[in-house]
Design a protein that fits this description.
Elements (H helix, E strand, L loop, with lengths): L25 E5 L9 H5 L5 E4 L3 E4 L9 H5 L5 E5 L5
Antiparallel strand pairs: 1-4, 2-3
The chain binds iron/sulfur cluster (SF4) (2 copies).
């Protein structure tokens, strides 16, 4: 299939060309002691800001996280809290 078929109106990088993190006024904080590693936050995050690694399991990244709070809304264990940007450590 022609590679161009996958291009988006914002370029080859798709949504990642947008500096979505610059929109953020709140940021998600994950409580690993409550997390059951179900992966719902990763499934729902619209910008792929939730990652997984063998040693750490699910974790949040902030390069593209726009602070929408969907991960916190969907977490079945309330393991993700939204904090005002700049208030965490
Ligand atoms: S949705 Fe909640 S419980 Fe599930 S992996 Fe994410 S933080 Fe952990
Ligand atoms: S706040 Fe929104 S963009 Fe950030 S990790 Fe959660 S779902 Fe993804």
């Amino acid at each position: 299939m022609d590679k161009r078929a996958f291009r988006t109106p914002v370029g080859d990088e798709g949504l990642y060309i947008l500096d979505t993190a610059s929109w953020r006024t709140t940021r998600p904080i994950m409580d690993k002691s409550t997390c059951i590693n179900c992966g719902l936050c990763m499934a729902y995050c619209p910008v792929n800001a939730v990652k997984w690694a063998k040693d750490t399991k699910f974790f949040l990244t902030y390069d593209y996280c726009k602070g929408c709070g969907i991960c916190a809304q969907e977490c079945p264990k309330n393991a993700i809290m939204m904090e005002k940007e700049g208030e965490d450590t």
